[in-house]
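We treat protein structure as text, and this decision shapes the records that our systems exchange. Below, we set out a record of this kind in full and without editing:

***
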Amino acid sequence: MSRGNSARAQGFLFVLMRPYKILITLVAIALFGAGFAYLIAPRPEATDRRSEAVSRSPHEKIETQETVATLKESQPEASAVSDAGANDVPVVQKQSYTIPVLSETTVFQTMEAYAETNVEFTFSVREFSGLGFFIEDIGGLKNRDGYYWTLFINNTLSEKGVSTAKVSPGDIVELRYQKGI
């Protein structure tokens, strides 16, 4: 058996390497691994397209499926704005709607169906490329001053927009108007 080709001899050579050579070898392996991970990682869509706002009101004719969940959202009180200044926290009154959902659908489709049957329920959305629609306004209360409509499904913050977040029968959907991170 040749000394240069055996696994034991190769391990012995690694031990005899100087510490800086070992460090350089480990750094090179780490850089190679990081480069490979970068190459195989999914890339977000690169577009210069601006987000576009889409208004949804009960007057638009949209085909929707009959939808059973509870949609909770906040509406502004009459005293939502005070004289103290721009640092005020908007005061909102909790408003709940029960909407039947008979099969899996999106939050957006559920809201559209409800807006068709309830003239007082209005909302608008903004499309973000690759993420879908996000709520911009509900009942006249718009995203502003660091406060946003945030989607929760079964008391868990959704990482998706209303157009991609799925809701099933029995789910509890909440749109909370709260300070953004």
Observations:
- Residues 99 and 114 are 7 Å apart (CA to CA).
- The longest helix spans residues 19-40.
